TrEMBL record:
The protein's name in its UniProt record: Putrescine-binding periplasmic protein
Subcellular location: Periplasm
Listed SUPFAM superfamilies: Periplasmic binding protein-like II (SSF53850)
Alphabetized GO MF terms: polyamine binding
GO biological process: polyamine transport
Main function: Required for the activity of the bacterial periplasmic transport system of putrescine.
Alphabetical list of InterPro entries matching this protein: SBP (IPR006059), Sperm_putr-bd (IPR001188)
Pfam families in the record: SBP_bac_8
Family from the record: Belongs to the bacterial solute-binding protein PotD/PotF family.
The keyword Phosphoprotein is annotated on this UniProt entry: no
First and last residue of the signal peptide: none
Lineage top rank: taxon: Bacteria
Length: 381
C-alpha cells in the first residue's frame, strides 16, 4: 500500500546524493578526470511507493557503501505488476504488497533471497514474518518492510455533528449504510481506489471471511458500495491524506499510516481539526509491503546490501518514524518514537490483532471479475 503521499512526488525520479551527482556533472562539463572513479559505478535501482522511506536513510546508505540509489515511485500494485511481468523492468528492488507478492512469485518474477548475505535477518518480527509466509512460504523471496491496516479515518467534530454524539463510528456501516453515508456527503467521504483492500476488509460485514473467493460474496460488497457511491466524493490511492488534514473531507477509508499522516499534518498546521482512526469492529485487512528482487535485476549484490542495511534496527525505526507505519523489524521497536509505538492505530494491541485478516491473491478469472465490479462502483456503469 503507500503509502504516504505528498505533493509533487507522483512518479518522480530521484537520485540520492545530489552533491556527488552535481560534482560529477561539473567535472564532466569541464572535461576533468574524476579521481578514483571505478570502472563500473555501483548502483541500486529501487521502485517503491511515493514518500515511503526517509530520504536521510538513502543518503546514509550511499555514504556508507558508495552505492548510488536511483529511486522511482509508483502509486499502485497494478503498475508494478505490469512492469515486472513485461520483463526488463530495470529495477533491483521492488516493494509489492502481499497478494501481489504471491502472484508474482507464482509467475517466477523474483530471485530467491540469498540469506547468507542478510546478516540482519534475525531482527525481523517472527509473528509478522509468519503471517507474511501465507504469501511467500518460508519467506524465500521477500522480507517485510512495513505493515498496517485498512480502516476508517475521520474528522471527529464534523462526523459527530452529523451522526450524533453517541454514534457508533468503529463500524463499516458508517460508510456502507446509505442513510449514514448520505449524512456525511456534504462534509465529504473519500475511499481507497483499491478493491484488493476494500473488498476483503468489508466482507465480514456480510458474514463472509475476508479471504473469500466466492463471487457472490465479492458482489455483496461491491453492491453495497455501489449504493453509497453517490455519497463518495472520490476514490483515490492517496489524495485523502491531505484532504482529511485540511478539512476538505470528514471521512477517509484508507491505510492506517496515511490517516495518521493526515493527523500529523493537521496538528502541524494547528488548524483545530482532530482526526481519529479506527479498525472497524467487524474486522479489517492487515496488509504487508515487502522488499523483493526482480529475477532480471542487474545489480542483485547491491540489492541484497540495501535490504540488509534496511534490516538494521535503527534504520528500520528511522523509516517508521518518518512514514508512521509499523515496521516488520522487531528489534527496531526500541528506537521507534514513543508516540508512534504507543499508538494503537500503528501498533495494534493483541485484541485488535485478532480481528485482522489476510487476503490471498485472486486467480486471474476472479481478478477480471472484480475489475468489472470495481469499474461499476467507480463509474456507476
Amino acid at each position: 500500500m503507500a503509502r504516504v503521499e505528498r505533493p509533487v512526488r507522483r512518479r518522480s525520479r530521484v537520485r540520492i546524493g545530489f552533491g556527488v551527482a552535481a560534482g560529477m556533472l561539473l567535472a564532466a562539463l569541464l572535461g576533468l578526470a574524476l579521481p578514483g572513479r571505478a570502472a563500473e559505478e555501483r548502483v541500486v535501482n529501487i521502485y517503491n511507493w511515493s514518500d515511503y522511506i526517509d530520504p536521510k536513510v538513502l543518503d546514509a546508505f550511499t555514504q556508507e557503501t558508495g552505492i548510488k540509489v536511483v529511486y522511482d515511485t509508483y502509486d499502485n500494485n497494478e503498475i508494478l505488476e505490469t512492469k515486472l511481468l513485461a520483463g526488463r523492468s530495470g529495477y533491483d528492488i521492488v516493494v509489492p504488497s502481499g497478494p501481489y507478492l504471491q502472484r508474482l512469485i507464482r509467475a517466477g518474477a523474483f530471485l530467491p533471497l540469498d540469506k547468507t548475505k542478510l546478516k540482519n535477518l534475525g531482527n525481523l518480527w517472527p509473528e509478522i514474518s509468519g503471517r507474511l509466509a501465507v504469501y511467500d512460504p518460508g519467506n524465500a523471496f521477500a522480507v517485510d518492510y512495513m505493515w498496517g491496516t485498512t480502516g476508517i479515518g475521520y474528522n471527529v467534530a464534523a462526523v459527530r455533528e452529523r451522526l450524533g454524539a453517541n454514534a457508533v463510528l468503529n463500524s463499516w456501516t458508517t460508510v456502507l449504510n446509505p442513510a449514514s453515508a448520505n449524512k456525511l456527503k456534504d462534509c465529504g467521504i473519500m475511499m481507497l481506489d483499491s478493491p484488493e483492500d476494500l473488498i476483503p476488509s468489508m466482507l465480514p460485514v456480510f458474514g463472509a471471511k475476508a479471504d473469500s473467493k466466492r463471487w457472490d460474496d465479492l458482489t455483496l460488497v461491491t453492491d453495497a458500495l455501489y449504493k453509497v457511491r453517490g455519497s463518495v466524493r472520490k476514490f483515490h490511492a492517496s489524495e485523502y491524506i491531505q484532504a482529511l488534514a485540511n478539512g476538505d473531507i470528514c471521512v477517509a477509508v484508507g491505510y492506517s499510516g496515511d490517516v495518521l499522516q493526515a493527523k500529523r499534518r493537521a496538528e502541524e498546521a494547528k488548524n483545530g481539526i482532530e482526526i481519529a482512526y479506527v479498525v472497524p469492529k467487524e474486522g479489517a485487512l492487515m496488509w504487508f509491503d515487502t522488499f523483493a528482487i526482480p529475477k532480471d535485476a542487474a545489480h542483485p549484490a547491491e540489492a541484497l546490501a540495501f535490504i540488509d542495511y534496511m534490516l538494521r534496527p535503527e534504520v528500520a525505526a528511522a523509516n517508521t518514524n518518518f512514514v508512521a507505519y509499523a515496521s516488520g523489524n522487531l528489534a527496531a521497536k526500541k528506537f521507534v518514537k514513543p508516540e508512534i509505538l504507543s499508538n494503537p492505530g500503528i501498533y495494534p494491541d493483541e485484541a485488535t490483532m485478532q480481528r485482522l485478516s489476510i487476503n490471498t491473491a485472486w486467480d486471474d478469472r476472479t481478478q477480471r471479475y472484480v475489475t468489472r465490479l470495481w469499474t461499476r462502483v467507480r463509474t456507476g456503469r
